[in-house]
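Bench log. Compound arrived from synthesis this morning; before running ITC I wanted a structural hypothesis for how zinc ion sits in the protein. Inputs:
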Amino acid sequence: MIKKKSVVLCALFFLLLVASAAWFWAAGQRQECNPLCFVPPDRDEAVSFVVLHHFSSSPEDAISNFNKFGFSTHYIIDTEGNVIVIVPEDKIAWHAGVSFWHGEESLNRISIGIELQHDNFGQTPFSKKQIAALKPLLQDIIKRYNIRPENIVGHSDIAPDAKPDPGKAFPWQEFAQDGIGIWYDINDADKMENYSVKELLDIIGYNTKGDDLISSAYAFRRRFLPEQVAYEPDMAMRGNAIFEARFKASSLPKGERAAMLKNVPRIHPEDDGTFLTDPLFIKTLRAVAYSYKKARDN
Ligand SMILES: [Zn+2]
């Protein structure tokens, strides 16, 4: 009888031990959302890129979406110019997704992401306060990591078939004049006459494999010839629809995923690529490629 009682007590004690261990483990897993509810991974490669984005909600909603979908960024700058740190720079943030630039792929591991709040999908001028906050932040990051000007990119540059941000109104030319990123001198165009459109896009850094040639050419126009990119076809909503479809597809088995992604619309509305033969497009592409070639040769 005594023996039986001690066995029961022993079992109860063991159960209590297991239960409290489980409780402590679960408590360790629970993290206050500050602002993220998950812990971003450590970085083990040097930062060599900055990727600019836009988002169209409030910063609070953006953060709640990060927690809902498992995405993140290093910084948010709201329209008032407030800089909010989301992920420390020495951790990896999930902002770039499937991405490519000049031979580098999956840029999250080597980039810092900055999300700019914009109520109109980056189609109308960015707020002065926001630009005034972004410039010194970028200059500081560039200096600290010695980031090359050709590696200051927009999300649409590195994921041209899926992402339209930061949008055609982002003032790339103004930033280049302040030493951030690259602009061009149209008079340099004739120095690159012997290159094809594909070769010129390759020199700049765009992905030109398969269907990505037209997407990349379209992303190029959005950044360097924004007056040629109309609001309607460039709507970020289109990007959101693609994003959602890809997000859904990501949970499917490999075979089904490929089939589903085949039917997902692409970001560029001009699938026939008629703009590829437009003289101003070609001239600008040559001039920009020259600037990038010169920067890389330095
Ligand atoms: Zn983005």
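What the model suggests: The longest helix spans residues 2-29. The beta strands are 49-55, 75-77, 83-85, 100-101, 104-105, 111-117, 152-154.
ITC booked for Thursday regardless.
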